[in-house]
Amino acid sequence: AQSVTQLGSHVSVSEGALVLLRCNYSSSVPPYLFWYVQYPNQGLQLLLKYTSAATLVKGINGFEAEFKKSETSFHLTKPSAHMSDAAEYFCAVSVGGSQGNLIFGKGTKLSVKP
Amino acid sequence: DADVTQTPRNRITKTGKRIMLECSQTKGHDRMYWYRQDPGLGLQLIYYSFDVKDINKGEISDGYSVSRQAQAKFSLSLESAIPNQTALYFCATSDSRTYSGAQYFGPGTRLLVL
Lengths: 114, 114
Hints:
The complex is a heterodimer of chains A (114) and B (114).
Chain A: E1 3-7, E2 10-14, E3 19-26, E4 33-38, E5 44-50, E6 56-58, E7 64-68, E8 73-78, E9 87-98, E10 102-104, E11 108-113
Parallel strand pairs in A: 2-11
Antiparallel strand pairs in A: 1-3, 3-8, 4-5, 4-9, 6-7, 7-8, 9-10, 9-11
Chain B: E1 4-7, E2 10-13, E3 19-25, E4 31-38, E5 42-51, E6 54-57, E7 64-70, E8 73-78, E9 87-94, E10 104-105, E11 109-113
């Protein structure tokens, strides 16, 4: 069965520091993987997606994620945090390739200190 | 802009009342979903619909029902609301033709059951 684990419910970084949000997945089929961001009082916005093409995926707002099959990981990174990056981030895996429903992790809340 | 809209954005109701949350989209997507979000639990799938005549239960469908009135409209009903249905509810859509599996979310409805 497919599942997603996000390590760390809260992550705090200083402005300008590296952002690293961890996601590990379990999937019995080649996974489709996603990162979403949720700003306060808003819905989820798609940041980026991995659909079996390039293993390094670039998304919006300077974020990127690398698919590592050997580690079953899809960690989200940004070289330099901005105050506007403060939000909750969700990793998700599709349960049936491109046509399956999504299973979401429990989320990681990112705080950015000035 | 093509979008996913939800009404109402906020709702307070009493235990035992029947309420309906509505979702409409102008994206032209064929698939629609209802999720609930509770703090620390991520998103849980309530119901999903792959087209107007195809409606399926998700992982937490008890106490909920849905209606797909048209390709663009998908409503969620709480037949007899109870306090533990207090949550943030999201509608989402996806397009089966794109083969990416990505879902696009509305802004959410915050429901409080007293």
